[in-house]
Design goal:
230 residues; Alpha-Beta Plaits; 2 domains; 5 strands; elongated
């Protein structure tokens, strides 16, 4: 029977595993049988550089940790040698690196199963995630999609502003010239009216004596025509 100290150590290791599983967004279980030391060293370095927690673990300890985190469905895959790769934020990088190792080892390295956001998934789902673009590529594509409409809107607004400026200048010129023409028009109309007003009395005054002379002549001739015939 294991001593109390050993049991406490195992309990602590399970507790540590539970803490790692709970804060991980993605986990990949793999069978590392057949991989040589050189390839394993290279693979571990790639995992560290990517921020992935990768380690070999006893199936019994991992099984108890899965039970405590509600992922006991994964216990059926805990057969033979088991390694686990945990990623706290990125759900693509761990599957991608593990799947890359599977391809480079020509089947010696195999994916067993895994989990995404606390949900157990089989190896097929892990491989699907491995074939997705990396997080950086996805973010850059998303930013491009979000920026494109904004860029088009900015260009459209710029063109509208330019056309608005071009239209405003002629309008301002017309507005400035129009009052001058309107103010000049009454002056031009006023001059002929004044001339007519000034000339009309003069013509009437000149015609008045002529009428008076004609009347006088008629008055002088009238008595002659009225004398009785002898």
């Amino acid at each position: 029977m294991p001593s109390k100290r050993i049991l406490e150590q195992k309990e602590q290791r399970v507790a540590d595993l539970v803490a790692k599983l709970e804060k991980s967004a993605c986990g990949v279980l793999s069978n590392y049988k057949g991989i040589n030391v050189a390839d394993d060293t290279k693979f571990r370095k790639a995992m560290r550089d990517a921020g992935i927690d990768y380690f070999v673990i006893k199936n019994s300890l991992l099984s108890r940790a899965f039970e405590k985190t509600g992922m006991s469905e994964l216990n059926e895959h805990l057969v033979g040698e088991t390694a686990i790769a945990l990623s706290e934020e990125d759900i693509i990088i761990a599957p991608k690196l593990v799947y890359g190792q599977v391809e480079s080892s020509k089947g010696k390295y195999a994916i067993k199963a895994g989990f995404i956001d606390g949900k157990p998934v089989d190896s097929a789902v892990i491989i699907e995630y491995a074939k997705l673009p990396s997080k950086e590529v996805l973010v850059s594509k998303l930013l491009f999609m979000l920026q494109s409409p904004m860029q088009r809107l900015a260009i459209a607004l710029s063109e509208i502003a330019k056309k608005g400026g071009e239209t405003a200048e002629p309008a301002a010129e017309v507005a400035e010239e129009a009052p001058a023409e309107v103010t000049e028009a009454p002056a031009e109309v006023a001059e002929p009216v004044a001339e007519v007003v000034e000339e009309a009395p003069a013509e009437t005054a000149e015609e008045a004596p002529v009428v008076e002379e004609a009347a006088a002549e008629a008055a002088e001739e009238a008595p002659v025509s009225e004398e009785p015939a002898e």
